[in-house]
Amino acid sequence: MTISMYSTSVPVFKQMLTALSDVLKKAETHATEKNIDPNALLQARLFPDMFPLVRQVQIAADFSKGVTSRLAGVDVPSWADTEVTFADLQALVTKALAYIGTLDAAQFEGSENKEIVLRPGTPKEKKLPGSAYLQHYGLPQFFFHVTTAYAILRHNGVDIGKRDYMGAY
User: Residues 125-141: what's their mean pLDDT?
Assistant: First the structure.
């Protein structure tokens, strides 16, 4: 059975980014209702050596656009990662959703065998076929950052659960 690189990537990214957007809305509402400085949540971390919520969301958005771009054979757009507020993060997620929505299934045809080069020209350069890149690198990285964003907010008292994390499917 052949796996569709498009259906294994774009719809998954859309589902999880939409759920992340909803979780961020709940976090902002939580901060407002509890009179919590939003920065307390935006800069929260699970541990001091981990990235804060803002960076987790930025990286999740970066993986969604980067993975899909590479598989579709188009240039990865460069975004500044200057978000500092919940509104900024919502705009970023909306931008990522809009971007991946511009890609169509035909662009992904044959990408399972396409060579993807990670960290080109560096000592850490690694070459993977597209299917391994998506299944063993891109999706796990994306899910790590979405899950960590969720965990930061749950740890800080935002009333979210597994249904919020999963979103609509």
Answer: 97
Residue at 79 is within a domain: yes
Q: How far apart are CA 107 and CA 88, in angstroms?
A: 30
- Write out the residue range of the structural domain in which residue 129 sits: 5-34+48-166
For 16, counting Cβ atoms within 10 Å of its Cβ (0-12 exposed, 13-18 middle, 19+ buried), the class is: buried
Cβ(65)–Cβ(100) below 8 Å: yes
pLDDT digits (tens, 9 = 90+) for 66-116: 999 999 999 999 999 999 999 999 999 999 999 999 999 999 999 999 999
Q: Is residue 40 part of a domain?
A: no
